[in-house]
Amino acid sequence: MTTLVSIRNLHKTYQRGPENVDVLRGIDLDIDRGDFVALMGPSGSGKTTLLNLIGGLDSPTSGSIEIAGQHIEKMGSGQLAHWRSNNVGFVFQFYNLMPTLNAQKNVELPLLLTRLSAAQRRQNAAVALELVGLKDRGKHRPNELSGGQQQRVAIARAIVSDPTLLICDEPTGDLDRASAEEILGLLQELNRTHGKTIVMVTHDPKAAEYATHTLHLDKGNLVEQSAHV
Q: What Pfam families is this protein classified in (predicted)?
């Protein structure tokens, strides 16, 4: 295994009124290429903050984040935006689909930032939809799809650019158990069969069982790491 994400002495402090709040307190972490990591911990433990830092949505107060040989903590906002578009796919709890666009067009959205032709964008989106099991739902708008199907569209959108890293923030938090297990099975397949490196925040121990590793955070500290057999 080769290391994809290398984090050293990572701190994140927010100012709330007159006080400084330390959300992350010196995190050291390595994630190998091909890992499926579940981030767990109580509310306020720093899970989403760590996820946002790994995904380049936020910058640390201090420390380093090296991903595929690039130190993203040294990038400005414009560089980070360009880096994210080329390297990271995001899956959120509430899908974040455009309601006026059908599934095909929603999946194509990240490709609008590329130099691909319209025909290439359609082809890539169709392949991504087929990969998540929605080959015949491309013309459907979000309100014509179930919650689980909408999240599949969101996953297709996240992988359509073939990102290095897939970032998932509570991807099953708004789904019933059956739909949640389908989505987790899909993420596991993307990891095992297609080699996607995935970092997922979850409160659900059953969801974490689909990952290859679980990391537990508490009060901004990494308190436990476990590998799944």
A: ABC_tran (PF00005)
- The per-residue pLDDT for range 76-105, each reduced to its tens digit, is 888 998 899 889 999 988 888 999 999 999
Beta bridge partners of 69: none
Give one DSSP letter per residue of 10-78, joined into a string: EEEEEEETTEEEEEEEEEEEEEETT-EEEEE-STTSSHHHHHHHHTTSS--SEEEEEETTEEGGG--HH
Q: Where are the domains of the chain?
A: 3-227
pLDDT at 145 over 60: yes
Q: Which amino acid is at 221?
A: N
Sign of CA dihedral 56, 62, 68, 74: positive
Model confidence pLDDT, tens digit, residues 151-209: 999 999 999 999 999 999 999 888 889 999 999 999 999 999 999 999 999 999 999 99
183's CB contacts (< 8 A; 6+ apart) are 148, 151, 152, 155, 171, 172, 175
Task: Show the tokens assigned to 178.
Answer: 């059956």
**CATH number of the structural domain 3-227:** 3.40.50.300
Output DSSP code: residue 113. Answer: G
pLDDT of residue 213: 92
CA distance 86 to 12: 25
